[in-house]
User: Fold TonB-dependent receptor from Mariniphaga sediminis.
Amino acid sequence: MKGIVIMLLAALLTMQLFSQSIEGIILNGDTQEPVSHANISVKNSTMGTVSNDSGFFSIDVLDTGKISLRISCLGFETQEKEVTSCKNQKIRLRPVSVQLNKSIVVTASRNELLSFQTPDAVSVITPQELKINAPRSMADALSGVTGVWMQKTNHGGGSPFVRGLTGNQTLLLIDGIRLNNATFRYGPNQYFNTIDIFSVDHVEVIRGKGSVLYGSDALGGVINVLTRSPEYAPGKPRLGGRGKVKYMNKGMEESGLGELSFESKNIAVSGNVNYKNFGDIFAGGDLGYERPSGYDETGVTLKAKMRFHSNWQITSAYQYLIQNDVGRYDQVAQRGYLLYSFDPQIHRLAYAKIEHFSENPWLKKMKLTVSNQYSDETRKKQKENSATFTMENDVVKTNGLSLESYSAFSRIWEAVSGAEFYSDNVESGKTETNTQTGEKNTCRGLYPDNSSMLSFAAFTQHTLKLKKFHVNFGGRFNTFRIHSTDDEFGKVIIKPNSLVGNISLQYFTSPEQQFILSTHSAFRAPNINDISSFGLFDYGIEIPSIDLSPEKAFTIEGGYKKSSERFSMAVNAFSTRLKDQIERVEATYMGSEYIDGDRVYKKENIARSNISGIEFESGFKLNRQFSFVNNLTWLYGKNLEDDTPMRRIPPLNGKLALQYHKSAIFGEMEFLFAAKQDRLSGGDIDDHRIPKEGTPGWKVLNLKAGYLWKKFSVNGGLQNIFNQAYRTHGSGIDSYGRSFWSSLMVEF
Assistant:
C-alpha cells in the first residue's frame, strides 16, 4: 500500500498540460437535443471525459493527427469516430432499445470490443437494464439472461448455471479478478451474492469459453461483474453523488444507498455506503412466508482513478460487504434443523491496476493488477432435539498478481498475452457447544487449518483479420501446488498442471452478419474443497480425497450473429465433452459406511459426460417506441459411463418481453417460463431440494415501468401477477408471489 501511495504522489508531481484539445457536443440523433453524461474516450489511451448537461465535452490530447474516439451512453448505441484535434465537433448518437450485439465487452478478449465482433457467445446486462430493473441481488440481476439459469438454495444465495454447470465449474470475476477460490465447492454455492449489486455497472457472461484467458473453473464459462467507476470531468473540479432507496411490499426489502464523488480533469474518486434489509420471502399461491429466509446486508465501496501524462493511469478500489443471519430455509423446513444460517458472511476485495499505453505496436497497452481478497464464512447449525450447537468458520485469504499486454503487430494481427499468479490460504475451525451444560469442544473444521493453493499461468490469445475471415486462436499453461496437513488424514501435496487452447473462425458475409465455428478446451484444477473436505453436504457426509487430477472439457460450437439498426439475433449450438470429472462415490470411514446416520462419500476422477445445447436470442425494434426481445435455452446432459441423465441440468427455459421507450418513459411486459424437468439423475433424486417426480414447469408475467425527470428517476414493478407458486429447478426456496417494488434515485 505504501508503494501505491508513493506512486500516486509521483504521478501528481509529473502531471503535464496537454498541447491540443478536441471540443464538441453530443446530440441525440433523433431529437437533436444535447446528451449529458456521455462517456467520450480516446482509444488506447487514458484520455477521456464526460459530456456536461449541455452535451459539451473537451479532451486534451498530444497527438495532432487523427484521433479515434469511442462514445457511449445509457440508451444509445456505442459509436467510434475518427476526428482531428479541433473545436466544434458534433457527434450524433443513435437511440437504441435493443442492446443485443451492440454492447462493448472486455471479458471475451481482455480488450474492449463490440460484442458483435467477438466469436464468443456473449450475454450482457447493461447499465440501463440494471437501472430500470433495480434488482435485489446479483442472483435477481441474472434472472432471464440467455444461457444462464439462476438456482437459489436460499434467499441469500444465488448460483448461476452456465451451460448446465455451476459452482466451481463456472468462473466468477469481479473487475477481471477471480472470485473463485480454493474452497469453492462442486454444485451450487452462495458466493455470487456476496457482490454488492449497488456497486455494479454491468455484467458480461461468456458462455462456454474462458480457460485460455482466465484459467481454472471456466468449464461452463465466465461471468465478469464490472463495477461502477467515477469519470473524469472537463473544466473545473466538481462534486457529485447519488442517492437511492428501494421498497418491496410484504416486508421483503427496504434498502438505501448514499454515494459521493469528486471529478476533475485527471483525478476521479467515488465512494458509497449502502444498507439492505431483506425480509422473509413471500411465495406464490398459498405458500405464504417461508421462514427463515430474510437477512440484512451492508456494503462499502471506494474507487479512484488518476491519469498522468497521456499514457499512464492508476485505478484502485476497495469493496466490502457483510451479510448477517442468512438463513438456510431448506435445511430448517426439510432437513430437521432448528437453526442453520451463515452468520456472518463477509467478502472484501482491494486492488490496484496500473495501465500504460504507447505507440509501440508490440506493447500498445500494458496492465499490472495487484489484488487482495478476504472471504469469511461462519455457519451456525443445530438440529432439532439436539443439545449440540455447532459453529464452523472458514476464512480464505487470496493474493493475486497479473500482467497482461495488448499488441497490434500489424493492421490484421492483434494479440493479448500475459501471466497470472494467485495464492489462497485457508483457515478453518469448528466449535461444538452443549446448550444444556455450556461445555465447548474445539475441533477440526470443514478443511484442515492453514491449507494452501498456489497457481501460476501464462497465456496468449491472437486474432488475424483477413478481409471477410477472422481467425482467433490461443493457449494457456497453468500449474498448481495444493497443500493440506491433517492430524487424522495426513499430509497431502498435489501438483497438477494443465494445457488448454482454442481456435475459432468468423466469416462475415456482410458487415451486419457472420457465421462462427469454434472449438476450445477447458479445465478445472482440484482445490482444497476437493482434497480435504470433511463434513455434511446435501445428501451425506464427505471425507477427504487424494490423488485427484484436473477435470477437462472439450467443446465444438457453431453460431450465427446478426446486428442491424432494427433487428439483432444470435444463435449458438454446442456440444461439450467432459472427462475426468470429480464426483462423489460411496466410501467408508474407519470401516463404517455411515457417520451419525449420514452416508459416507469421497471424491474421485471417475465420470465422463456430455452436454449439448442450443441458445437463441433476438431483438426487434418495431418502431421508435416499441421493441420485442426474446431468448430460449435448451440443454441435454448425459453421463457417458452409464447412459443416465447428468445432474442438475436446467429445463427448457426462456423469456419474451415487449418494451416501450419514449423520451423519459420506459415500460416492459416480461414473460418468463420454464418447462418441467423430470429427467433426473440419481443425485437429483436424492436431493431434498428437488421433488421426486421432478420440478414442475412454470410461467410468470411481470410488469415494469420507469420515468426520468431531470436528476430524478422512479422505477417500479409488479411481479408474478397471477401469483403462481413455483421454484426454479434445483432451488431450496420458492420464488416471489404476487408483489410490487418501487425505487427512487436522485443524481446530482
Remarks:
- Residues 225-747 form a domain with the Maltoporin; Chain A fold (CATH 2.40.170.20).
- Confidence is low (pLDDT under 50) at residues 4-19.
